[in-house]
Structures are given as structure tokens and as C-alpha cells.
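Now for a sample.
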Amino acid sequence: MPPTRTAARSKKPPPDGFEDIEDTLLEFQNKMKDAENASHEGKKKYEMVWPIFQITHQRSRYIYELYYEKEAMSKKLYDWLLKNGYADANLIAKWKKQGYEKLCCLRCIQTKETNFSATCICRVPRDQLKEGQDIQCVNCGCRGCSSGD
């Protein structure tokens, strides 16, 4: 039987610059623990994971903005953060493509999981919706992540 990996995080020390963002990452980690331990009474089954999706999105967006927009992070630190699971590399890859700059989660663009092989309702621009129609994604609770909003 092959050996299994027990820890997702590597044992190598983090690169230079990690100390600058460590406090913010710890805040996200504490928010995640609170969301995981929160009461689920009165919520629908799919609503229980919305806070987890949103915190993961916020943490990935924070790292994305530091590296690509503010250029306040080294490539070595960025790669280390992705490798150790601090950000979603696939989601960040989509944010770099035109039309996906505000994407909330990858499940919203997967057509295999929908009834009519289409993307999620939150990807529809607001000007194409009926007047006063309120939308909310079932997957992650997003209220609209179309780049045309």
C-alpha cells in the first residue's frame, strides 16, 4: 500500500515576506474556524457551506491582489502560499481571464452540475434580469459575480 500524505502544509519554513501577511491570514483562519463551528439550525443544507466559500474567496482574493495588483509579494512567497493551500490556484487562474474577474467560485461556471448545461444564475449580468428580480447562487450564496455588473 502506498504511503499517504498526512499534512497539506510543507515542513519548510515560509519565504521572506510571510511575516507581513501572517496576521491577516490568521484572521482568515479564525473566521474559517468560526464558520465551521457555527450553528446550522434553521439553515438549508446548501446554505451551511456559504460562509466557508465566502471566506475562501476573500482569502484567495487577498493573495491575488497582493501579488498581481499591488505587486507587494515575491513570486517565491506567492508560489509557497498556493502550494500550501492558502489560496485557490484554479480560482486565481480564472480571475486572470477576461470575463471572470469577479468570479465567486469555480462551481458557478461548471456546466455539468446544472439542469440545462448552463452556468449559474449569478453569472448573468443584472441588466439582463427581470426588473426587481433578486438572485442568489445556490452553490455559494453569491448575489452576482458577472463582470458586466
Q: What stands out?
A: The mean pLDDT is 86.
